[in-house]
Amino acid sequence: MALFDLPLAELRAYLPHRAEPEDFEAFWHATLSAAAEHDLATEFTPYDALLPRVHVHDVRFSGSGGQRVAGWFLTPAEVAGPLPCVVQFIGYGGGRGRPHEWLLWPAAGYAVFVMDSRGQGDGDTVDLPGSDSPQHGGVLTRGVLDPEQYYYRRLFTDAVRAVDAAASHPEVDGSRIIVAGASQGGGIAQAVAGLHAQVRGALIDLPFLTHFRRATEITDAHPYQELADFCATHRDRVEQVFHTLSYFDGVHFAARASAPALYSVALMDDVCPPSTVFAAYNHYAGPKELQIWPYNGHEGGATFQPPIHLRWLRDLLAA
Predict the structure, then answer these.
(1) Does domain 8-14+25-318 fall into CATH 3.40.50.1820?
(2) Is 183 considered catalytic here?
(3) pTM of the predicted model, to two decimals?
(4) pLDDT digits 0-9 by tens, 102-112
(5) For the segment 10-20, what is each residue's pLDDT rounded down to a tens digit?
């Protein structure tokens, strides 16, 4: 795809008004307080992934509503802790996958805690009691008429709890926890950076779930097209939809974050349009850097991005 969004000079200055609900803070305080009433009850069960130089654990912890959330926890076998830990979140439609997919971080000397996405991926974590099968797509509009019932209220709460679950392991240095992800995972990492004071840094690549209204107006790519299709069908509920989404917009979380962040954006990305990423980046309240990929779409930096992550984290954690 060719360039389709604002010119780069305008993107750098793009600072849209934040249409934030008055009770945003109260909503999230109540949400996280309700979750905290449930014991994390984190279980780390050794798992034979046939990777002798990596210790692998299957994880279960209590997320939103006390529901059990799956994950993986990997540490390098030959590096003594306590270790910095990357809490990794997953893209839209995906789940925690298999342990061998997450070897980058232990190879670099970090622990990694990979959180499953409820109701997505392989179905290791159900969304709500009684829903025993995963689905691909569609969760973007699940419960979108009510902030209390919206899917991402549960998923973001799981993600905040995942930081606590990772910090509970004796091999993890709780003062050096990094949240990371791309696309949906980047949107989740961005939200957690704004909600959890313990986060030391954030790797936010091509974040989804950000500047919703503009996204639905300038791209017809999925997943944002799910919202546009919903609004096209429910013509009389459009403002209700965007009122709900205002509690989950990454721009509002970015404005509350204080941890250093490394963002990336691709200027030909029609899935997470550049202006939506710049809207959050320009509002981000903590120290920040931005990696721009001018000729790429939603693949972003692909294999070029991890070395940038590793160098940035090395410098951050050495400071």
Answers:
(1) yes
(2) yes
(3) 0.97
(4) 999 999 999 99
(5) 999 999 999 99
